[in-house]
Amino acid sequence: MQAKTLKELAAHVGGQIIGNPDVLIHSASTLARAGAGQISFLANEKYEKQLGITAASAVIVKTQADIALDQIIAEDPYYAFMQIVVLLHGHRKHKAVGISPKASVADSAKLGADCDVHDFATICDNAKLGSGCRIYPGAYVGADVVMGDNCVLYANAVIYDGCKLGNGVIVNANSVVGEDGFGFATHDGKHHKIPQVGVVVIEDDVEIGVCCGIERGTLGDTVIGSGTKIGDSVTVGHGSKIGSNCLLVAQIGVAGSTTIGNNCIIGGQAGIVGHVTIGNNVTIAAKSGVINSVPDGMTLVGAPAIDAAKGRRAYSMIEYLPDMKQSIRRLEKQLAELKAANGQQAGSDGK
Amino acid sequence: MQAKTLKELAAHVGGQIIGNPDVLIHSASTLARAGAGQISFLANEKYEKQLGITAASAVIVKTQADIALDQIIAEDPYYAFMQIVVLLHGHRKHKAVGISPKASVADSAKLGADCDVHDFATICDNAKLGSGCRIYPGAYVGADVVMGDNCVLYANAVIYDGCKLGNGVIVNANSVVGEDGFGFATHDGKHHKIPQVGVVVIEDDVEIGVCCGIERGTLGDTVIGSGTKIGDSVTVGHGSKIGSNCLLVAQIGVAGSTTIGNNCIIGGQAGIVGHVTIGNNVTIAAKSGVINSVPDGMTLVGAPAIDAAKGRRAYSMIEYLPDMKQSIRRLEKQLAELKAANGQQAGSDGK
Amino acid sequence: MQAKTLKELAAHVGGQIIGNPDVLIHSASTLARAGAGQISFLANEKYEKQLGITAASAVIVKTQADIALDQIIAEDPYYAFMQIVVLLHGHRKHKAVGISPKASVADSAKLGADCDVHDFATICDNAKLGSGCRIYPGAYVGADVVMGDNCVLYANAVIYDGCKLGNGVIVNANSVVGEDGFGFATHDGKHHKIPQVGVVVIEDDVEIGVCCGIERGTLGDTVIGSGTKIGDSVTVGHGSKIGSNCLLVAQIGVAGSTTIGNNCIIGGQAGIVGHVTIGNNVTIAAKSGVINSVPDGMTLVGAPAIDAAKGRRAYSMIEYLPDMKQSIRRLEKQLAELKAANGQQAGSDGK
Fold first, then answer.
1. Which residues are paired to B235 by β-bridges?
2. I want to staple A261 with a disulfide (CB 3.0 to 4.6 A). Which of A112, A196, A280, B298 is the partner?
3. Residue of B107, B159, B186 to mutate, testing the C interface (most C Cβ within 10 Å of its Cβ)
4. What CATH class does A4-88 carry?
5. CA distance B104 to C121
6. Residues forming beta bridges with residue A259, ordered by sequence position
7. C-beta atoms of C137 and B192 within 8 A
8. What contacts B45, CB < 8 A, 6 or more positions away?
């Protein structure tokens, strides 16, 4: 971490300086935690009050704030902040270990230039790795796997045989790509395993969190589109296709043979049934249960998942079910009384 | 993959040929993807339209379809398809590696004939493996574990000490069998770990997906019945018993001391509380939350889970809660008006 | 397991003996399974009937039971039982293996006295372990990790670089501590990875189940407070802080930047959104979806989560939505009839 002037940082993100361009910034932090020599940002209005009390030396904002702090004005403050964090802190450095003699690399495997294969990692027969791949201890690359350049498999990540990873794919620790799909033909009460002939194809720049499982397809392939980011403990069923630049937060389940479009955002613990089609730019709230196909651009909440426009209110009203029930009972009683009174009245009228 | 004639395939599955018995089939695929030389199937009416447009050379159907394609008529087309996929494609072949010198096998461990123990696999003291077991890299077999014949532990699967696996058990990558149950005695605000004295017993022909955790019992054992298939990221709590030939899809949680019968089907992300009894042939829909015991044969949906016969409709009606609330308000208003009018009327009557 | 007299056991837990102090007890079991020579306990009234039929030689109870069995009276029978299980059965014994020559320990790593580092375990540069740590096969301790005394990392557990574990921390098999938080800045439709500069701090006496993921913080640290116990497949998001002596059962998701107080109990499959504050002594039922901050002492159920006092009833009423809808329709019809009748009547009155 080498300190930079605010001027250098502003130039790096194409922002405009308000205040002292020569203030030195050594690192980045949140508004609440930042101190002298640190830069922070405001991207969410919710935290606007913190602008007034932060001890940061400078902040990145979208529009000039009425505060005494030095500022960088940037159109997308969070993006600018990301660029500055990369500049000041950098991404994780991978130790250059080369091909460890304590690793197990098949003679038939082909590795590109500048790969690291750590102790106790396994590269099986005919696997092909591009250049600059980092294979951490205990990671397993099955037979016939093909990986592009600059992939990272963290400790104990497992890629089953035949799967294909593009360039810049990151698979975090203890995740699995390409296990058999959950496919059984049930006959006379027994479940007979169907060979899962497809593989998993992971396109460029995908990151997968820890403890995920991406099943291989039964006959076709399971596909994760380029630029899609997947959090921890996500399961993707056999033959599903997830588009490009999606965000799947954590503990999501996508059942088999489902297609998800591009630029979708799926919240934690959401589940999507099999054999449906989710459009592009769809947002699915955390814990939703999607049981039907979804057109482009929708936002869904709840289980079963419905249009968020009415869904947020609808699900929040479950709380009032006892009150509603009581209202209905009261109405029934009052109506019965009214009918009885009317009957009496009608009777007396009829006299 | 050696091509077979339609006649050979029909004979293999005990089916009847409609069309040319000599057509050569080299592989299997879905109706939508199949091309020349491929066979597909129709098991779900939902896909019937695809029969008319598939480019497959032959299809397996339950009753003769009015199409120009060569057909195999089979009573259970999906089962027949499975048999044909096995015939044409086969199950995964495990490379015969024997006992790798780079594995760690305790002197006191006993291995049956024809076992493969890959590099970096660990077999601890007094473990006993039957014949034909495949222990992939990084897999761990704890002390005193007993495994039957033809078991497969994929990469980095972990079996804690003392657990018992029957014949033909498959544990996929990064799953764990036999970790301590979540058992603590809370006293004066501190949680004291209770030794988990039981083990896990996995009966014959069970398959467990990736990233699962099957806890050992506190005092008795946790049991997974024969022929049961478990998907990815499933957690089974301490002391629970799951019957035979169940299907547990993915991300399911079964809390401790619960008993599940035979032939149950449990959908993804469902949860079952502890200390309840689920009967035989019970179906639990995805995302259900089961909080009570369930008699044989029921189908449940929702959280809390209720009889699907009414539950599917009930949960789908959450969407209309705002409308219902509005209806109740309107009724209240109208009733008040009516009462007021009646009162007036009554008043004028009483004059 | 050496047998003890009831007198010895009573003395060990500070309990009072009813019956024969000399009866020999060799092990512990549940009321339903216990036999001669075994001790059991009654902590939950639900099982009181089993007291009459248990074959145990002795039981631990809170108040003297009117049964012929020998008894230990203890104020907290479950705690007493735990103490006795520890006495009779003990916790898991870890085989003393020392530093295996088949492990990979960096020259710059520092290990305290009496550590076990098993085959295929990896200890990276500058890692520091206290005394009495047990590092099972395939476990991975990243660079600059600091661990206290008596920690246990079971097989294939992974600690990313720089994380800090206190004393007596247990991480079960295939769990991960310190992977990058799910932090991306989305710009022009692409998700740019934000370096995750924080680490994970795990305080003393925390136990983490299998297949968990505890993300490192983006700028600050993720913290798990002392004495907190976490079950299987739990995900904790970046920068969240969990207090002391909490119980998080299985498959729970805590999103990023959320703070949870002390002594909270969170049920299986519950989810908590990011950026909220949960107080002390909060109980969150299984499968709940918490979307707001929660004051001290509350109990919540449901998704969305609401006060259990009304929530249990409210969620159980979803089942009756079709009936309620029908009641509303009936009311609307009856009211319309009544209005029509009144109108007629009014009309005839007006004649």
1. B213, B253
2. A280
3. B186
4. alpha beta
5. 12
6. A241, A277
7. no
8. none
pLDDT, tens digit, for every residue of C175-214?
A: 999 999 999 999 999 999 999 999 999 999 999 999 999 9
Q: Which residues of C touch A92 (CB under 8 A)?
A: 161, 180, 195
CA distance B246 to B282: 9
> Number of C-alpha atoms within 13 angstroms, CB side, residue B341?
16
Straight-line distance from the first to the last Cα atom of chain B, in angstroms, rounded to the nearest whole number? 99
**pTM summary value:** 0.96
Cα distance between residue C170 and residue C149, in whole Å:
11
- Which of A82, A89, A281 has the most C C-beta neighbours within 10 Å, making it the best mutation to test the interface with C? A82
Query: If you ran DSSP here, which 8-state letter would residue B45 be given?
Result: G
Q: A1, A26, A39, A120: best mutation site toward chain C, by most C Cβ within 10 Å?
A: A120
User: Where do we find the tokens 């670089």?
Assistant: C161
- In angstroms, the CA C173 to CA B340 distance is 72
Chain C residues with CB-CB distance to A210 below 8 A:
158, 176, 179, 213
By CB atoms closer than 10 A (0-12, 13-18, 19+), residue B11 is: middle
Planar angle of CA C233, C298, B255, nearest 5 degrees: 30
Are the CB atoms for C135 and C117 separated by under 8 Å?
Answer: yes
Q: Do B173 and A271 touch (CB under 8 A)?
A: no
Indicate yes or no: CB of C156 within 8 angstroms of CB of B156.
yes
| DSSP track, B225-258 | -TT-EE-TT-EE-TT-EE-SS-EE-SS-EE-TT-
> Using the beta-carbon criterion (under 8 Å), do C190 and A227 form an inter-chain contact?
yes
Closest residue to A176, CB basis, from B174, B315, B332: B174
Q: CB pairs below 8 Å between A and C: how many?
A: 202
Which letter does DSSP use for residue B244 in this model?
S
Q: Give the DSSP H/E element, type plus range, for residue A164.
A: strand A164-165
pLDDT digits 0-9 by tens, B124-176: 999 999 999 999 999 999 999 999 999 999 999 999 999 999 999 999 999 99
Q: How confident is the model at residue A348 (pLDDT cuts 50, 70, 90)?
A: very low
B169 vs A290: CA distance, rounded Å:
33
What's the whole-number average pLDDT of chain C?
95
CB-CB contact of B51 with B66 (8 Å): no
Low-confidence residues of chain C: pLDDT under 50: 346-351
Distance (Å, rounded) from C-alpha B14 to C-alpha A187? 14
Token code pair at residue B97: 């590696």
pLDDT of residue C348: 42
Active site residue A187: no
- A269: nearest CA partner in chain B: B269
Q: Under a CB-based contact definition with an 8 Å cutoff, are residues A109 and A122 in contact?
A: no
Tell me if A317 and B338 make a contact (CB, 8 A cut-off).
Answer: no
Distance from C-alpha of A142 to C-alpha of A176, rounded to nearest angstrom: 11
Q: How many CB atoms lie within 10 A of CB C47?
A: 16
Instruction: Give the separation between CA B191 and CA B186, rounded to whole angstroms.
Output: 4
Per-chain mean pLDDT for chain A: 95
Contact A140 B155 (CB under 8 A): yes
Q: How confident is the model at residue B344 (pLDDT cuts 50, 70, 90)?
A: low
Which residue carries 């799953």 as its tokens?
A: B175
Contact C207, C232 (CB under 8 A): no
Instruction: Quickly state the pLDDT bin for A349 (edges 50, 70, 90).
Output: very low
Cβ distance of C92 and B289 shorter than 8 Å: no
Residue bearing tokens 């079960």: C172
Catalytic residue (one of B118, B187, B238, B275): B238
Q: Check residue C345 and give its pLDDT.
A: 55
> Which pLDDT does position C1 carry in this prediction?
59
Confidence of residue A1 (pLDDT cuts 50, 70, 90): low
Sort out which chain A residues have CB atoms less than 8 A from C237's CB and list them: 250
